[in-house]
Write the structure tokens for this entry.
Amino acid sequence: VQTMQNIRSRLASLLEGAGVSDELLEMNPRFLLKHPNWAGNTAAKLREENPQISQEEVATALTDMLRMKRMKQQARILANKGCDTDAIEQKLKEYWVDDVEFAMKDVVC
């Protein structure tokens, strides 16, 4: 709990004014706990590559990257359960596009 609060405050200070630190934290909390410096390092790289980038653009880029990482994790879980490519795509679509809430570990292929 304390670690999550630390990460939340780091994200808030990193992206001050963008107001999306909670969204970032909810997107992939396990990854952020394992890699607490990832957001700061990635934001620094984005700003280095493009000094004109706004806080909102950095926040959007970080959110998109975390979403991709989470999708890869979910696809890996489904693949390890023996799901084929079509089933994986369908379940990811249901979760991300259709907003159907379920745990990937509970999916039966």
Observations:
- The chain is about 70% helix and 0% strand.
- Residues 55-80 form the longest helix (26 residues).
- The CA atoms of residues 10 and 40 lie 8 Å apart.
